[in-house]
Amino acid sequence: MIQQVIKFAKEIPAFRSLAIDDQISLLKGATMEVSQIQFNSVFNLETSQWECGKIIFSIEDGALSGFQRMFLEPLLKFHITFRKLKLHEPEYVLMQALALFSPDRPGVIEHDFIDEIHEKTALTLKCYIDYHHPLPDSRFLYAKLLSLLAELRTLNEENAKQMIHIQNIMSDAMTPLMKEIFS
To answer: Would you indicate the residue range of the signal peptide (predicted)?
Structure first.
């Protein structure tokens, strides 16, 4: 998933135009958030499972891999709420970009440029929603998405704690790339 997030980011010209230090800071800060947004597109509301082709993941799989229930239950609730919004693919992509281009990530230098990208992405998402989702169903969709991004930020912080917890239990649980992202 980390490699998919890196690939996604590198496909965005504005991301590639940033200094390498800012690219790294944004990726370190947003990888889990972007991954969860991507992961939501394969979430099945009826089964509460993630269906990745022939591979199916459940919350139980997360518990078996070392994640604590206090993290997994809010994560599942997030995915249920997010999936119920029935987003289109472009909305998922724009949400990923919003998560990626957060100017308040630790280590970011070009705050103003990243903030400008973030603002343009947010406006694009709002315009897309206004055009493609009829009222009254879409009346609060944009606000709900921004709220979910804030919730995802909180889940991101908890995820980092969970990853450190898992690493402490199983020292070989994380690849070097994962260690870099979650350090």
So the answer is: none
Sign of CA dihedral 106, 107, 109, 113: negative
Domain limits at 95?
2-182
Q: What's the CATH number where 43 sits?
A: 1.10.565.10
111 neighbors 103 (Cβ within 8 angstroms):
yes
Q: What is the pLDDT of residue 62?
A: 85
Q: Count up the domains in the chain and report the number.
A: 1
Are 153 and 106 in contact by the 8 Å Cβ rule? The answer is no
Parallel, antiparallel or unpaired: strands 49-52 and 55-57: antiparallel
